[in-house]
Amino acid sequence: DGGITQSPKYLFRKEGQNVTLSCEQNLNHDAMYWYRQDPGQGLRLIYYSQIVNDFQKGDIAEGYSVSREKKESFPLTVTSAQKNPTAFYLCASSSTGPSNSYEKLFFGSGTQLSVL
Amino acid sequence: AQKITQTQPGMFVQEKEAVTLDCTYDTSDPSYGLFWYKQPSSGEMIFLIYQGSYDQQNATEGRYSLNFQKARKSANLVISASQLGDSAMYFCAIMDSGAGSYQLTFGKGTKLSVIP
After folding, report:
1. What are phi and psi for residue A10, nearest 5 degrees?
2. Chain B contact residues (CB < 8 Å to A)
3. Cis peptide before A8 (omega within 30 of 0)
4. Nearest 5 degrees, angle CA B30-CA B21-CA B94?
5. CB A104 to CB B50 under 8 A?
6. DSSP A3-40
7. Contact across the interface for A107 and B53, Cβ inside 8 Å
8. Is residue B104 within 8 Å of residue A45, measured between CB atoms?
9. Which of B35, B30, B24, B26 is nearest to B59 (CA)?
10. If we measure between CA atoms, which residue out of A20, A113, A17 comes closest to residue A74?
11. Secondary structure (3-state) at B101
């Protein structure tokens, strides 16, 4: 089955620690995205990547970093600079990227990050 | 102004009845797409339905239909014959071009509860 796999489902971070969230897709999609969801809020874009070795900042990139070394993988690192990291993180992918108004995004099942 | 406004934080509907979830949007882009996603308690975002700004007819997908009123900038989701499994958060989103590239912007969502 094609889809997007996020791991772990739950993650805990200590003060001053960097943590990395995994996202893998086997849909052969070019574009991948990371969104953050806070309680009672919609999703906000952190980073996106349209091709390997290239990525762009979204609306709330501060305190986060990403890499795109392989088409299938787009890990997100939450750095110690992110002072309020507790949130639900969703990874998504799309066929070609944010280049048209009908690009449908497919989502993973998310990672809940909490601060100890 | 908010790009996507969902005015109903929570809605209740009796099983087998129809329900309408409201969504209004704000964009100056003539070419845009409107999406509805469902988020069950498991966390995954599930695509439901899409409406393009140039589409002449309202979109339909099974029990889901979109009441698209372009002049009023509204794109309400209608779910017919509600089922218990429809209980979830529902998000309206718009794909339009901001500063040079298309981006998907989400509303804050509506929590739908289906009553047996």
Report:
1. -130, 140
2. 4, 9, 29, 31-33, 35, 37, 42-47, 50, 52-53, 91, 93, 95-97, 101-109
3. yes
4. 25
5. yes
6. -EEEE-SEEEE-TT--EEEEEEE-S--SEEEEEEE-TT
7. no
8. yes
9. B35
10. A20
11. coil
Inter-chain touch A103–B103, beta carbons under 8 Å: no
Residue with tokens 């005015």: B7
A98 neighbors A48 (Cβ within 8 angstroms): yes
Q: Which of residues 34-53 of A touch B (CB under 8 A)?
A: 40-45
A57 token code pair: 């900042």
For residue B66, give the amino acid letter. Answer: L
Q: In Å, how far is B41's CA from the nearest CA of chain A? A: 10
Q: Which residues are CB-neighbours of B38 under 8 A, at least 6 positions away?
A: B45, B46, B48, B86, B88, B89, B90, B91
Q: How many CB pairs under 8 A join A and B?
A: 70
> How buried is A104 (Cβ within 10 angstroms: 0-12 exposed, 13-18 middle, 19+ buried)?
middle
Q: Please, which pLDDT band fits residue A2 given cuts at 50, 70 and 90? A: confident
Asked if the C-beta of A79 comes within 8 angstroms of chain B's C-beta atoms, the answer is no
Residue type for position A92 = A
- Could you give the 3-state DSSP secondary structure of residue B84? helix
Contact B91 A43 (CB under 8 A): yes
User: pLDDT of B13-62, one tens digit each?
Assistant: 999 999 999 999 999 999 999 999 999 999 999 999 999 999 999 999 99
User: Looking at residue B102, what is its pLDDT?
Assistant: 82
